[in-house]
Amino acid sequence: MNIWQADFYYHPSAAANQKQWLLVICRGGELNAHQIEPIYLAECTAESANAEWLKQKLLEVDGGQLPEEIQVFRPQALGLISVAAASLGIKVKATRNTPQLKQVLADKYQQNPHYNPLALEKPPPQALPENLWGDEWQIANIAAGQIIDLFRDRPIPIASIPQELDPVKLNLTSDIFIPGVVVFGGRKSMQLARWIDEQVPALINYIPTEVGKSGGFILETGLVDRWIFNT
Protein backbone atom coordinates (compact mmCIF):
# COMPACT_ATOMS: atom_id res chain seq x y z
CA MET A 1 0.00 0.00 0.00
CA ASN A 2 1.38 3.38 -1.05
CA ILE A 3 1.19 5.71 1.97
CA TRP A 4 2.38 9.28 2.42
CA GLN A 5 2.81 11.26 5.62
CA ALA A 6 2.24 14.98 5.09
CA ASP A 7 2.32 18.27 6.97
CA PHE A 8 1.29 21.74 5.80
CA TYR A 9 1.93 24.46 8.36
CA TYR A 10 3.56 27.86 8.78
CA HIS A 11 7.10 27.75 10.18
CA PRO A 12 9.88 30.32 10.64
CA SER A 13 11.63 31.04 7.36
CA ALA A 14 15.16 32.21 6.63
CA ALA A 15 13.90 35.80 6.42
CA ALA A 16 13.80 37.56 9.79
CA ASN A 17 10.42 37.80 11.53
CA GLN A 18 8.64 35.99 8.73
CA LYS A 19 6.85 32.68 8.43
CA GLN A 20 6.31 30.62 5.32
CA TRP A 21 3.87 27.78 4.82
CA LEU A 22 5.82 24.57 4.34
CA LEU A 23 4.54 21.39 2.71
CA VAL A 24 6.50 18.30 3.72
CA ILE A 25 5.75 14.82 2.36
CA CYS A 26 7.44 11.55 3.38
CA ARG A 27 6.77 7.93 2.62
CA GLY A 28 4.80 6.09 5.28
CA GLY A 29 4.53 2.41 6.03
CA GLU A 30 7.20 0.39 7.82
CA LEU A 31 9.85 2.51 9.51
CA ASN A 32 13.29 2.25 7.94
CA ALA A 33 16.15 4.32 9.35
CA HIS A 34 17.69 4.60 5.88
CA GLN A 35 14.55 6.08 4.34
CA ILE A 36 13.81 8.93 6.77
CA GLU A 37 13.95 11.76 4.28
CA PRO A 38 11.29 13.83 2.53
CA ILE A 39 10.18 12.98 -0.98
CA TYR A 40 8.79 16.50 -1.48
CA LEU A 41 9.25 19.97 0.03
CA ALA A 42 7.55 23.20 -1.06
CA GLU A 43 7.00 26.63 0.48
CA CYS A 44 4.39 29.29 -0.17
CA THR A 45 3.15 32.55 1.31
CA ALA A 46 0.06 32.81 3.49
CA GLU A 47 -1.85 34.27 0.54
CA SER A 48 -1.18 31.14 -1.55
CA ALA A 49 -1.85 28.59 1.20
CA ASN A 50 -5.09 26.99 0.05
CA ALA A 51 -6.49 23.65 -1.10
CA GLU A 52 -5.97 24.37 -4.80
CA TRP A 53 -2.26 25.11 -4.28
CA LEU A 54 -1.98 21.88 -2.27
CA LYS A 55 -3.73 19.88 -4.98
CA GLN A 56 -1.32 21.05 -7.65
CA LYS A 57 1.68 20.24 -5.46
CA LEU A 58 0.38 16.74 -4.67
CA LEU A 59 0.21 16.06 -8.41
CA GLU A 60 3.93 16.89 -8.70
CA VAL A 61 5.07 14.27 -6.17
CA ASP A 62 6.48 10.94 -7.42
CA GLY A 63 5.77 11.84 -11.01
CA GLY A 64 2.05 11.94 -10.35
CA GLN A 65 1.90 8.48 -8.71
CA LEU A 66 -0.67 9.34 -6.05
CA PRO A 67 -0.89 7.37 -2.79
CA GLU A 68 -3.87 5.45 -1.47
CA GLU A 69 -3.61 7.23 1.88
CA ILE A 70 -2.11 10.39 3.39
CA GLN A 71 -1.44 10.41 7.13
CA VAL A 72 -1.61 13.73 9.01
CA PHE A 73 -0.66 14.38 12.64
CA ARG A 74 -1.29 18.15 12.91
CA PRO A 75 -4.92 19.27 13.44
CA GLN A 76 -4.27 22.61 11.72
CA ALA A 77 -3.09 20.82 8.58
CA LEU A 78 -5.89 18.27 8.47
CA GLY A 79 -8.57 20.48 6.91
CA LEU A 80 -6.68 21.76 3.86
CA ILE A 81 -4.97 18.45 3.16
CA SER A 82 -8.33 16.63 3.41
CA VAL A 83 -9.97 18.98 0.90
CA ALA A 84 -7.09 18.71 -1.57
CA ALA A 85 -6.83 14.94 -1.18
CA ALA A 86 -10.58 14.42 -1.58
CA SER A 87 -10.50 16.18 -4.95
CA LEU A 88 -7.91 13.59 -6.05
CA GLY A 89 -9.67 10.58 -4.55
CA ILE A 90 -7.08 10.05 -1.79
CA LYS A 91 -8.04 8.86 1.68
CA VAL A 92 -6.74 10.96 4.60
CA LYS A 93 -6.04 9.44 8.02
CA ALA A 94 -5.60 11.55 11.16
CA THR A 95 -2.97 9.80 13.28
CA ARG A 96 -0.22 10.63 15.73
CA ASN A 97 1.83 7.75 14.37
CA THR A 98 3.88 9.56 11.71
CA PRO A 99 7.47 8.90 12.85
CA GLN A 100 9.15 9.50 9.48
CA LEU A 101 7.49 12.90 9.04
CA LYS A 102 8.21 14.02 12.61
CA GLN A 103 11.86 13.04 12.27
CA VAL A 104 12.20 15.06 9.05
CA LEU A 105 10.65 18.14 10.70
CA ALA A 106 12.84 17.78 13.79
CA ASP A 107 15.97 17.49 11.62
CA LYS A 108 15.02 20.48 9.48
CA TYR A 109 14.68 22.84 12.45
CA GLN A 110 17.36 21.39 14.73
CA GLN A 111 19.47 24.53 14.27
CA ASN A 112 16.67 26.63 15.79
CA PRO A 113 16.65 25.75 19.53
CA HIS A 114 13.82 28.19 20.24
CA TYR A 115 11.36 26.53 17.88
CA ASN A 116 9.71 23.13 18.14
CA PRO A 117 8.08 22.17 14.81
CA LEU A 118 6.22 19.29 16.48
CA ALA A 119 4.54 21.30 19.25
CA LEU A 120 0.75 21.05 19.25
CA GLU A 121 -1.74 23.02 21.30
CA LYS A 122 -3.59 20.56 23.52
CA PRO A 123 -6.86 21.34 25.30
CA PRO A 124 -7.21 20.74 29.06
CA PRO A 125 -8.09 17.12 29.94
CA GLN A 126 -11.82 16.37 30.02
CA ALA A 127 -13.51 14.27 32.65
CA LEU A 128 -14.23 10.73 31.48
CA PRO A 129 -18.04 10.24 31.28
CA GLU A 130 -19.16 8.61 34.52
CA ASN A 131 -21.12 5.92 32.69
CA LEU A 132 -17.83 4.72 31.18
CA TRP A 133 -15.98 4.17 34.44
CA GLY A 134 -14.87 0.61 34.90
CA ASP A 135 -15.30 -1.41 38.09
CA GLU A 136 -11.55 -1.42 38.72
CA TRP A 137 -8.25 -1.18 36.86
CA GLN A 138 -4.61 -2.08 37.25
CA ILE A 139 -1.24 -1.48 35.60
CA ALA A 140 0.03 -4.49 33.69
CA ASN A 141 3.03 -5.50 31.60
CA ILE A 142 3.03 -7.85 28.62
CA ALA A 143 6.16 -9.18 26.94
CA ALA A 144 6.50 -7.81 23.40
CA GLY A 145 6.74 -11.32 21.98
CA GLN A 146 3.38 -12.30 23.49
CA ILE A 147 1.16 -9.39 22.47
CA ILE A 148 0.08 -10.64 19.04
CA ASP A 149 -0.44 -14.24 20.16
CA LEU A 150 -2.32 -13.15 23.27
CA PHE A 151 -5.03 -11.25 21.38
CA ARG A 152 -5.01 -12.62 17.83
CA ASP A 153 -7.25 -15.67 18.30
CA ARG A 154 -9.50 -14.43 21.08
CA PRO A 155 -13.21 -13.91 20.26
CA ILE A 156 -13.07 -10.18 21.05
CA PRO A 157 -15.67 -8.10 19.13
CA ILE A 158 -13.41 -5.03 19.29
CA ALA A 159 -9.67 -5.51 18.83
CA SER A 160 -7.18 -3.20 17.16
CA ILE A 161 -3.54 -4.12 16.59
CA PRO A 162 -2.16 -1.73 13.93
CA GLN A 163 0.49 -3.42 11.79
CA GLU A 164 2.88 -0.47 12.19
CA LEU A 165 2.85 -1.03 15.97
CA ASP A 166 3.67 -4.73 15.75
CA PRO A 167 6.62 -5.21 18.18
CA VAL A 168 8.49 -7.19 15.50
CA LYS A 169 8.27 -4.29 13.02
CA LEU A 170 9.42 -1.92 15.77
CA ASN A 171 12.50 -4.13 16.28
CA LEU A 172 11.64 -4.77 19.93
CA THR A 173 13.16 -7.86 21.50
CA SER A 174 10.54 -10.42 22.52
CA ASP A 175 11.40 -10.26 26.24
CA ILE A 176 10.94 -6.49 26.63
CA PHE A 177 7.88 -5.71 28.75
CA ILE A 178 5.40 -3.19 27.37
CA PRO A 179 3.41 -1.38 30.10
CA GLY A 180 -0.29 -0.67 29.88
CA VAL A 181 -3.54 -0.55 31.81
CA VAL A 182 -6.16 -3.29 32.17
CA VAL A 183 -9.71 -2.10 32.86
CA PHE A 184 -12.31 -4.43 34.34
CA GLY A 185 -15.50 -2.92 32.95
CA GLY A 186 -18.07 -5.39 34.25
CA ARG A 187 -21.43 -4.86 32.56
CA LYS A 188 -20.08 -1.71 30.91
CA SER A 189 -17.16 -3.45 29.23
CA MET A 190 -18.60 -3.32 25.70
CA GLN A 191 -19.75 0.28 26.08
CA LEU A 192 -16.32 1.30 27.34
CA ALA A 193 -14.52 -0.65 24.60
CA ARG A 194 -16.63 0.97 21.86
CA TRP A 195 -16.03 4.45 23.26
CA ILE A 196 -12.26 3.95 23.46
CA ASP A 197 -12.22 2.51 19.92
CA GLU A 198 -14.15 5.53 18.58
CA GLN A 199 -11.76 7.97 20.27
CA VAL A 200 -8.70 6.33 18.61
CA PRO A 201 -6.45 5.93 21.68
CA ALA A 202 -2.78 6.93 21.46
CA LEU A 203 -1.30 6.57 24.92
CA ILE A 204 -1.84 6.91 28.66
CA ASN A 205 0.33 9.59 30.21
CA TYR A 206 1.12 9.66 33.93
CA ILE A 207 1.22 13.07 35.62
CA PRO A 208 2.78 13.06 39.12
CA THR A 209 0.77 14.65 41.93
CA GLU A 210 2.17 18.01 43.06
CA VAL A 211 1.29 20.32 45.93
CA GLY A 212 -1.92 22.11 45.01
CA LYS A 213 -2.29 20.09 41.80
CA SER A 214 -3.89 16.71 41.25
CA GLY A 215 -2.10 14.10 39.21
CA GLY A 216 -3.07 10.80 37.67
CA PHE A 217 -3.42 8.99 34.39
CA ILE A 218 -4.41 10.98 31.30
CA LEU A 219 -5.77 9.08 28.30
CA GLU A 220 -4.70 10.80 25.07
CA THR A 221 -6.82 10.10 22.00
CA GLY A 222 -7.25 11.36 18.45
CA LEU A 223 -4.68 14.02 17.59
CA VAL A 224 -4.80 16.23 20.71
CA ASP A 225 -7.78 15.15 22.85
CA ARG A 226 -7.13 14.26 26.50
CA TRP A 227 -9.26 12.54 29.15
CA ILE A 228 -8.83 12.17 32.92
CA PHE A 229 -8.64 8.39 33.09
CA ASN A 230 -7.89 8.08 36.79
CA THR A 231 -6.72 10.43 39.57
Short summary:
This protein is of the alpha/beta class and 231 residues long.
Give a structural overview.
This protein has five helices and eleven strands; from the N terminus they run E-E-E-H-E-H-E-H-E-E-H-E-H-E-E-E. The model has no long low-confidence stretch (mean pLDDT 87). 20% of the residues lie in helices and 30% in strands. Strand 10 and strand 11 form a beta hairpin. It is of the alpha/beta class. The radius of gyration is 20 Å and the shape is globular. A five-stranded mixed β-sheet has the order 3-2-1-4-5. The chain has a four-stranded mixed β-sheet with strand order 6-11-10-9. A two-stranded antiparallel ribbon has the order 7-8.
